[in-house]
Every structure is written in structure tokens, then in C-alpha cells.
Amino acid sequence: MKRILVVALTVFVLASSVFAAEVSELDPSINTSLSALTDSSYPHSARSLGMGSAGVAVGGRSDSFYMNPALLARRTLISLPYAQVSLYHPYDLLKKNESTGTSIVDDIMDAMNSGEMTDIAGPATGFLQTIKAGKGKLAEVEAGINLGGGGFALGLHVKDTIHTFGNGVGGLDANLFDELNVNILAALGLRFDITPSISIDVGISSGVSVLGYTQLIGVKEALDVMSKEDPMAALKGKNIAFGWTVPLNVGLNVNLPLGFSVGAVGRNLLGSAVGYKMQVTNIDAVMSDAMGIVSNTFSEKADFTLKMDPSFDLGFGWKWENGFFSPTVALDFVDFIDFFSNEMNMRSFVEHLRIGAEFRLLSVLDVRAGINQGYWTLGAGIDLWAIKIDAAYYWQEFGETAGDYGLDAFTIRFNLGFDR
Q1: Taking a C-beta distance cutoff of 8 angstroms, is the pair 276, 235 a contact?
Q2: Whole-number Å distance between alpha carbons of 122 and 388
Q3: Are 331 and 316 in contact (CB under 8 A)?
Q4: DSSP one-letter code for 399
Q5: Please, what is the angle between helix 121-128 and helix 104-113, to 10°?
Q6: pTM for the whole structure
Q7: C-alpha distances in Å from residue 46, one per residue of 60, 111, 162, 394
Q8: What DSSP state is assigned to residue 256?
Q9: Dihedral over Cα of 290, 294, 300, 301: its sign
Q10: How far apart are CA 91 and CA 111, in angstroms?
Q11: pLDDT tens digits for 253-274?
Q12: Is 5 exposed, middle or buried (0-12, 13-18, 19+ CB in 10 A)?
């Protein structure tokens, strides 16, 4: 009997140590390679990205739903549905190779046309060699639906992101991990008229946010799997984390004469107190019993809690509308509490600053430009009433430390519906 107890205790200790290792490799507070997961962020449309990610006081269209719920006051929006794709490193993808005269995109298209997906591994290697040290991204795919009227709105937003991370190394020695976000939110914006030319909008949004992500996967391992017939094999046996939280966002906007406005928004107000309640499992279990995993995520005790700091943004805007053209200017100072609680210098000031402008002609064509953390952004859009297409080319800050390097990206968004 004593021997049986010793064996049982040994198995329990070994199992506990293995589980602890699985949790530690997926907890960003322990494994800093996943620190990108703790960065405060919210969905940005191609329109917003082209305007330097600014618009707290003058966010338009479906941007209002996520940028500042107060902007939903007296707004009608129907997006059924929208889809958005962002590709990072587009310059490297399109740059012609001096020896072959072709780009990585050309080689990938040739491989796809050949009908052999394994041929993509070659050009993919060249692309992945452009990964730099520290934090970065390869791609994002987003989709969703927004419905609203009379200040009340409902929204569903799904985003999948492929992150890169290299601890002092880049290229094929770096790592990848995938992040999935699902947000189901309800929002309400109300307007209070103070005078005929001055009004105050207040808003609140909340719901459920689900987060899932994989453990780190080596770039070389991903390439090796890509050269085989079953690309999903890269995830087999890998550990993943799933969790949920209740987001709470509140906003305020003061509408002034001559088209000027001042706004403020507090996002993720419960993030540091509640956080994401995370469960650790593996991809095989999800594939065999996805609904069971989701059910356990909401019902069982969390393996660890992922804390997300709240952020508070200020915005100033000006918008002038007439039948021929409509200019918009936005200036945001984001996460201002972080700025005042740390070293206040010019570099930190620029990192918290977002500036953007949009020029709309005949309510059909939009031209945009901006500055985000010191990096320039460009954008354009066409509005055919029920069909909208927006695109943006911009740079974002990435690296091992703030300001290490700027990474270029291209985003395109297709939207069906009415949004005014």
C-alpha cells in the first residue's frame, strides 16, 4: 500500500510540474515573449489607420462603436458585414529580387497557380527572413457586424493576428504565435443639448470579450510543416490558452460651435481588477471538443488571470460639412495617465500623440493622412452609399523596446451597409 501511495504521489507531482510549465509558457506575466497580448488595443478600421489612428472626438461611421461610445448619439449605422485584412512588411513582399527579377508575391502566386501548396515554402522563407528582433506582426484578418440607431448599437467583431517575436534575434530564428479576439458588445450614446450650438454626448459600452492564443512556434518549425501536405500539423500537440472578460468603456464628447469638439474615453476600465480568466489546454482537445472547451472556459476556475491596464484618451476635433466637400481634423493624446506617471519628455509625448485629417469630396471620395507615434500614415476610401472600400498604408512602432523600428503595413476594408 505504501508503495502504491509513493507511486501515486510521484505521478501527481510530475503531472503538476508539467501543467505548471504549460501555464508558465502561456502566461504573459511570466513569459515576456507574449507581452504583445497585454498591450492595450481596440479595433481600428482602415479609415482610422489612414488618419493616424486618431478620432476620439470625431470618429465617424462604425469607428464610433470602438473609439468612443459617446459618438453613437443620434447616429445610425448598419454594417452587414464588414471584412478587413492587414498585411505587414508589404514593401518586402513587393520588392523585386535583383537576381530573379520577381517579388515574393510573384513567387507565392506562381506556387499557388501550380496547385502544389508545398511550393509556397520557398518564397515564404524569403519573406520570413525579414522578421526583426522583438515584437512584430505578419498579418491580421478581421470581420464583424454592427447595427445601431437612436444611440443604441450592437456589434460583433472577430480578429485573428499572427504575431512575431525574436528575443534578440530575427529572421528564421524568431518565433510566431497566433491570437484570436472575439468581442460581442452593446453600446449606448445619449446627447444632451445645452444650447442651440453646444451639446454633450455621453456613452457606455460593455459585453463579453474572448481571447485565445497559441504557444510560441518557431519559424523554422512552421516552414518545415509548410513544406508538407498538412499545414495544420504545425499546431498539433501545441498548447493554447482561452479566456474571457467583461470589458467596460465609457466616453464623453462636447460638441462646440463651428464644428469643434472635445472628447474623452476610458477603455477597459475593469481590466486591471477583473482581467481575462484564462484556461490552458491544447489544440487537439479543441479540435475534438470545441464546444466543451468553450463551456469550460466560462464555468471552470481560471488557470491564471491576464491583467489588462485601462487606458484614458483625450481627443480634439474639427469637422465642417457642406454639400461639396467636408474636411475633418483629429488630434488625440492617448493613455495620458501613463504619460504623466512616467518620464515626461519629447519622445514620450510623441509616442502618445495621434494626428489625422480627412478630406471628403462629393460624399464619395475620401483622402486621408496622419501621424501615429511619429510615423506617417496615408489612406483613401470610396463611398457608394451601400458599398464602401477603404485602404491605408502606414507605419507602426515595434521592436524589443519602444521606438526600435517602424514596421510598414497595408490594410483594406470592405463594408456593406448604411453608415452615417
Answers
A1: no
A2: 36
A3: yes
A4: B
A5: 160
A6: 0.85
A7: 12, 29, 18, 10
A8: -
A9: positive
A10: 20
A11: 999 999 999 999 998 888 767 8
A12: exposed
